[in-house]
């Protein structure tokens, strides 16, 4: 599925399932906004 041109909000995505979902959405072409209480573990890019 192509998510090119779409933006996804991934809450709780600093680790675990949320992180895996965020990376999967990015792999499918979405722009990702990641939010989590633990800002130190949020991926930078």
UniProtKB/TrEMBL annotation:
Organism per entry: Glaciecola punicea ACAM 611
Highest rank taxon of the organism: Bacteria
UniProt-recorded name of the protein: Uncharacterized protein
InterPro entries: NAD(P)-bd_dom_sf (IPR036291)
SUPFAM superfamilies referenced in this protein's UniProt entry, alphabetically: NAD(P)-binding Rossmann-fold domains
């Amino acid at each position: 599925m192509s998510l090119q041109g779409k933006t996804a909000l991934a809450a709780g995505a600093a680790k675990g399932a949320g992180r895996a979902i965020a990376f999967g959405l990015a792999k499918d072409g979405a722009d990702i906004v990641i939010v989590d209480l633990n800002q130190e573990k949020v991926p930078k890019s």
